[in-house]
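It is worth pausing here to work through a concrete case rather than discussing structure prediction in the abstract. The textbook approach is simple: state the sequence, then state the predicted structure, then interpret. We follow exactly that order.
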Amino acid sequence: MGLEIERKFLVINEKWKTSVTQTIRIRDGLIANNNGHKARVRIANAQATIALKSRRRGTTRSEFEYTIPLSDAEDIMRVMCDGPILEKVRHCVPYAGVIWNVDVYEGILSGVVIAEVELDRADQDLQLPDWIGPEVTGDPNYRKINMIARRNVDNREKHSAGPSG
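Step two, the predicted structure:
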């Protein structure tokens, strides 16, 4: 069984940009979400994967990820994904022995910037760079599904308000 131990943080400034070692363009599609368990398809540059993830328990959850053909991933995104396909640019930033992934969202989540780091152990010591802000690992407001729902409500309210004057 695969295990993902991950912590997520807000990013408070752009100092991370000077240390980027790799940039990856990512598209994510949610196939299914059942009480926190989810199935996701991802295209990262030209590599495609499908992942099954369990509900998060603190910083840890089970994860099973498999490489699939790029054409299959494109088809899955087109016919099976619920909601919008999320687009982001992931910037890999090494710091104090770990690789931080700074995700800069585009499209519906444009403006959202979240840093995440995968750890070997849940109790692993972690040094935070000076561009890291509050931790949002367990905050439901920063789950992608909730951020999308909030943006959809904001967009509906903006369009139903009509012209001001």
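Step three, interpretation. The beta strands are 3-11, 22-34, 37-44, 47-53, 60-68, 82-95, 98-106, 113-118, 132-135. The chain has a mean pLDDT of 91.
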